[in-house]
Specification:
The protein is of the alpha/beta class. The chain has eleven helices and 19 strands. The chain has a ten-stranded mixed beta sheet with strand order 2-1-5-7-9-11-13-15-17-19, with helices on one face. Strands 3-4-6-8-10-12-14-16-18 form a nine-stranded mixed beta sheet. One of its GO terms (biological process) is iron-sulfur cluster assembly.
Amino acid sequence: MNSEQQYIDLYQEQSDAIKRHSAEPLNAVRDRAFNDFKAQGFPTRKVERYKYTDMAALFAPNYGLNLNRLAIPVDPYEAFKCDVPNLSTSLYFIINDTFYTKMLPSAHLPEGVIIDSLCHVATEKPDFIAKYYAKLANTQEDGITALNTMLAQDGLLVYVPKNVKIDRPIQVINMLRADVDLMVNRRVLIIMEQNAEAKFLFCDHAADDRRFLSTQVIEVYVDENAHLELNCLEETHFKSTRVSNVYIEQQANSRVNHNVITLHNGVTRNRLDLVFKGEGAECHCNGCVVADKQQHVDNNTLIDHQVPHCTSNELYKYVLDDHAVGAFAGRVLVRQEAQKTSSQETNQNLCAAKTARMYTQPMLEIYADDVKCAHGSTVGQLNDAALFYMQQRGISLKEAKLLLEFAFVNEVIDKMELEPLRDRLHHLVEKRFRGELNKCEGCQLCK
């Protein structure tokens, strides 16, 4: 049986159960997504945006799914001890793909703000969700998005109304928990109206020593003059496979800061599609990857300049050791109407071992003639002269390597707006380079 067929059979047999445990706006697009998936299948390496990861192989194993929404016994507040010191957040949990409602933050949200189960809000306000859901994430263009859309039953909704600023950062813990190998399909919908402001920290953790396969589709609407910071941190384990597709639409004079950090994983494939729909918008997209052993991290981005006077800045850095494989493919598309565009795309990579592999493909596609655009990439090893200089001053070779690697990735971390988060990530990255298995002090997930 090929990889696609098991999911086609699954949907044909279980579509009634999937729909019964979800909401009408999510169900309304399922059959169409199923037909799109059946027509496309999983993207092969011949598809330009998937040339560095064998997607069919990732989905070939037979994982269990919780289609009947059985309750998973877990107290996330006991299992999760990874709070960021000095960062006061409103903390929410998603257990596998279900919004955790048994204990919600006591902090009062500004009037009109909604942070809740996507399925629940879709049941209460179907017309509102139908206006946004599965509009940016086009199932005809991507087989993974189609698969997620046909199987996802719940997830997270964040709605920030016009002129509302959320002062306290929102922290969302995506916790994988199961007694058997499990597949999880999660949706996130973020709606930022005019002049809204919010900062998010999404953390992915695995609570059990099982094989997990998670697909995630995030749709983000950022209206005029809105400001969003979206930080995504993965700290799972080597048995985890994570496929995440993020779709962002920006209107005039909006600002987005998107940061994705991969510290612990098995196989990770991140996709970012960002489109400028209004003039004067600005985005900063940054990525940091630390990988060793047999880990695989593939980041693929598309920034689509459709209108004039927009700015995009992109910086991704990788440090690879042992037999780790990294890939970065970033495409900046400047359409004919997008005059006065400013864009900078940079990918810098450090291979700490001769057996590590890095594939890099920064791309500019420009159809306008009045723009300032640049791109570039580097792949190299640690500087021998710098190592020698540091050893001459009494620093051991191991410590010198660590310091150079740490300094290399700091440029990405320092671009985050939340100072306590930057400090915490400096600490986590240093521990990661030192080979310490415990990700956060006191975290029970690592014991």
